[in-house]
Design goal:
binds 5-S-methyl-1-O-phosphono-5-thio-D-ribulose; 10 helices; alpha/beta; Four Helix Bundle (Hemerythrin (Met), subunit A); Rossmann fold; 4-stranded mixed β-sheet
């Protein structure tokens, strides 16, 4: 079985898995200009907070590698333009902005060097973002797997695996590590309406790795919990405020509320790059709203609602920190009080 790598630099451009084609096809696309990258991010061809961080870092290099600037001031303007543009693609995942800011910092750190050298430094930094993600996710897996007992059944939402990172995952990384450690685990994957990342990506990834996975519709989670089938819920994060309030895929909050009622521990797994300490509480986290067609039409043979019907389609929700038993990071598990 070929190893998957969600996104990487190759042939003078960005090669990524087109996640909109899964699970029916494992297609790679090659991106050579930032407008196509912006579109790919918006359309969720690449998605998941850590993968967006990598896309941002590679994207800055892609956007400036052919800059004709002769002075640092002119070059810095080109860098800023690319950062502003890519930053306008999706608002919620902190990692996207973290990737962009990291690249800006490098440009300024080497401002006294010739422009070709700054370009080399930017390329190296983007590669570093990718390499770091590989080890950070494995660390998250290592810490998180300590929470997993033999015969646990874990419920998860959206996709937090290989496809949401470079090649391992956060919440799914914890599951992968527990599996590698020889623990017998089962997973329930919520399909994750409206874009079905749970059905299309998580179930596909887990099945590919030989992990026992059962797909459920989002509205079945309560019943599965009531039946006593779930020992833990593990979710990822797009942005974590200073008080621990966590934005993640829409539906995560309702799972956390259900966990409280059913006395099931609810954990978040995320790298430090997902924390946004400039935001005090979840109220300050920008929540992306997406096209109505995703709710009414996408994946249906016929429209599933009348054209006149109003739609609210937030891509994320915020889980109150009081509902989170712990946040698993590459530096250890943060326990309340946050
Ligand atoms: O809209 P998406 O698919 O980008 O949303 C992704 C999620 O909500 C993930 O849970 C989150 O980014 C963490 S990925 C490790």
């Amino acid at each position: 079985m070929a190893e998957l790598m969600t996104i990487r630099w190759s042939k003078n451009g960005i090669t990524m898995i087109d996640q909109t084609k899964l699970p029916s096809g494992l297609d790679y696309i090659h991106i050579t200009d930032i407008r196509h990258l912006w579109d790919a991010i918006k359309a969720l061809k690449v998605r998941g907070a850590p993968a967006l961080g990598a896309a941002a870092a590679l994207g800055v290099y892609l956007g400036i590698k052919d800059s004709k600037a002769k002075t640092f001031d002119a070059f810095a303007k080109d860098v800023e333009k690319v950062i502003r543009y890519l930053g306008s693609s999706r608002p919620t995942a902190r990692n996207l902005f973290w990737g962009l800011e990291r690249m800006r910092d490098i440009a300024f750190r080497f401002k006294d060097k010739p422009i070709p050298v700054i370009k080399e430094k930017l390329f190296a930094e983007a590669q570093k973002v990718i390499e770091e993600d590989r080890s950070v996710c494995r660390k998250i897996g290592e810490y998180g797997a300590k929470l997993i007992k033999n015969n646990d059944t874990i419920l998860t939402v959206c996709n937090t695996g290989i496809l949401a990172t470079i090649d391992y995952g956060t919440a799914l990384g914890v599951i992968y590590r527990a599996h590698e450690d020889g623990k017998n685990i089962k997973v329930f994957a919520c399909e994750t309406r409206p874009l079905l990342q749970g059905a299309r990506l998580t179930a596909w990834e887990l099945d590919r790795k030989g992990i026992d996975v059962t797909l459920i519709c989002d509205n079945m989670a309560a019943t599965v919990m009531k039946n006593g089938n779930i020992s833990k819920v593990l979710a990822g994060a797009d942005r974590i405020a200073a008080n621990g309030d966590t934005a993640n895929k829409i539906g995560t909050y309702s799972l956390a509320v259900l966990c409280r009622y059913h006395k099931i521990p609810f954990y978040i797994a995320a790298p430090v790059s997902t924390f946004d300490l400039s935001i005090k509480t979840g109220k300050g986290i920008p929540i992306e709203e997406r096209p109505h067609s995703e709710v009414k039409e996408l994946f249906f043979k016929e429209p599933m609602a009348s054209a006149r019907v109003k739609v609210f389609n937030p891509a994320f929700d915020v889980t109150d920190h009081t509902l989170i038993a712990g946040i698993i990071t590459e530096r250890g598990i943060i326990k309340p009080p946050y």
